[in-house]
């Protein structure tokens, strides 16, 4: 009777910290989390998304698939994607694979966009020894 008939969709928001609520500590969920209120310390982890609305005041570390911010955030984020939306304020460090930022955002954070690992930034990979390098001569067009 009280059991869940099936597993919820990962994007389903099942955890909500309301605008008049505050939370401190570690929060983990396999579904999306929406924060309208205050988080003071700790860590928020989701296998899905974390959404900070315009009334959110969050000071913690966040680990999630995607983090969307409209409110105020201080801390470190580790996510596949971070979206900074108009009016948000972000302080701290962002470690992401993909990054989006609207106009009207206050960002005072270290942003680290990870991607394909490069041995030495700015250097092209070296060809293998004895590999032939094709030379293409320009053709003239009249």
Provide key terms for this protein.
single chain; 142 residues; mainly beta; nine-stranded parallel beta sheet; 0% helix; 54% strand; elongated
Structure, explained:
- With 142 residues, this protein is mainly β.
- The chain has one domain.
- The protein is 0% helix and 54% strand.
- The model is unreliable at 116-122 (pLDDT under 50).
Number of strands: 9
Q: Give the tally of structural domains.
A: 1
Classify the oligomer.
single chain
Any idea what the shape is?
A: elongated
The helix content, as a percent range, equals under 10%
Strand content: over 45%
Could you tell me the radius of gyration in angstroms?
22 Å
Mean pLDDT across every amino acid position? 85
* Cα separation of the termini: 81 Å
Unreliable residue runs = 116-122
Q: List the helices and strands in order.
A: EEEEEEEEE
Number of helices: 0
Largest sheet properties:
9 strands, parallel
Query: What structural class should be given to the helix and strand makeup?
Result: mainly beta
Short account of what is shown:
This protein has strands at 13-17, 22-29, 32-35, 38-46, 49-52, 57-69, 72-84, 89-101, 106-113. It is elongated, with a radius of gyration of 22 Å.
